[in-house]
Amino acid sequence: MEKVLSRNFHHAQPLDLATYRAGGGYDSLQSIFGRDREEMVNELRASGLRGCGGAGFSTGLKWSFLAKDAPRPVYLVINLDESEPGSCKDRQVLYRDPHTIVEGVLASAYIIGADKAFVFVRGEYKVGAAKLEKAVQEARDAGLLGDNILGSGFSLDIDVHLSAGRYICGEETALLNALEGYRANPRSKPPFPAVKGLWGQPTIVNNMETVCHVPSIMHKGAQWFQGQGQNGGSGTHLFQVSGPVKNPGVFELPMGVTARELIYDHAGGLLDGRKLIAFQPGGSSTPFMTPDQLDTPMHFDAVAKIGSRLGTGGVIIMDDTICPLKYTRNLIEFYARESCGFCTPCRDGLPYLVHLFDKFELGTATAADHQTILELCGLIGPNTHCALAPGAVMPVQSALQLFDDEFKKHIAAKGCSYSPVAATASQAAAGAGVQGGHH
Amino acid sequence: MSLTEHEIEHLREHIEHYPEKRAGAIYCLYYVQDKYGYIPRASLDEVSELTDLSPTQLDELITFYTLLRRRPVGRRLIRICDSISCYTRGSEQVLAAAKEASGVEFGQISKDGAVTVLPSICLGLCDRAPAGLVDDSEDLGELTPEKIRDLICSYAAETLDSKSGGGQQILAVLKDQQ
Question: For the domain B76-177, what is the CATH superfamily, name and number?
């Protein structure tokens, strides 16, 4: 496996343009400029690249939705609003190798024929946004951005937009509203952004990691990309493991690496004396997987097949020292707080779920409350505008199935028998941050 | 309290590169907040004029977006993540220690004006849990209750040392408002 996204992470500082180019940076443009756009979109479809922001939709297919005679301007918007708990991959690229992002945006913008690109960075990544802005300026000064780039006839500028908080901004249509200076309420779809997006213009919204894969696919080919994956996955992915493991971190590994290899070989396994109870494979909105599913290849289809979602590939560990109900309550509380408030089932239903979970902790819950949680999930999930509410109830429904006996135990014992979560700070690894695939 | 002509020109230029003025609102609000530590009423009027949004419409944005604020905070703003990855590594205890060390509730300014502590959503520092962020720019990782207590103590000392009056200035602004 060749590292793509983390290939420059061994440098102490983000590379300046000259050093980045000396290492082959921006070489991909030679394979892209002048080539037929439709052919490139087809190659992307063939490569098997899928959206890395969580949904896992075929990138080539998404791009093919853009009409050939789409009214100008066409926008490319990069989603760098990474806020899903357990996800910390995009941050690494932003802080450690911003030119990889500029190259990815430039390559992608050329292929879809975008007139302008926006990179939407969450406010908490302010320092990273400044690094990206610096890289963009270097690229402008070198003629890699601006009018008639490298004599190709193609012109593009990249606007780095610093957002001001709220998880919901990561929902693509909410993000467009945020960029336009509105509250980040998701829009009703259709029309989809490819038809009517930013300021009503055709817009492609992609996760940052997704576009960063595009240059190497165009440079080395779809087959090469497929070969980077294993067990049916294509390419590499920045996997993350967090929670009570010895070596939490971000790891660029073949798409399709097994959960076992990821958690035990790369993240060092659980802390001494802890036992794995369950894990979320791709961020806090994904249904739990259990120890008997550790050999599942971590790629979109394999994880979907067993009833969960690969999401962002941010694995979160639940061990035997934490109450599964408290764990789940923490997840719901996050979504309750981050609901944009537009749809009633989400705005009112999620806080009510938190309230019901509190009853289990306080020892006042009854079997009827258990039943209400189950019913409430069914009412909230499918009755909202966007994917926040379904994402919030999925792990709850999964917890109801997996930890049925825990709910009952809490009712019978009139409360929780688990200790509060102990503070166990991660070990600061030398050169903390992204670790390579194979040491 | 008002923006200089030069500053207004800078903001106007920024707004111009969007097709609609309101798209520049977040940038302008950030600009004011970076200058004063929060967004005062008088600045709302100035940003209103620049963006063609009423002060109420601007308030709609400020109350929605968590990183914008209408009230001052301590000299150091400490956000501590309470989302799941940090929670499984004891963020609850870190938050409790931080609250105790600050001597006030979350979101309030400590008596010496040194700190404001806020629980935060996931900061993308899951690999360094429990994690935090100071002044939206300095990462805190591998936190423990002791570590956060020491940090808050050091901020209190820094406030005392500050020749500019440090936290006292912030407290004076607050008093003015009440």
Answer: Glutaredoxin (3.40.30.10)
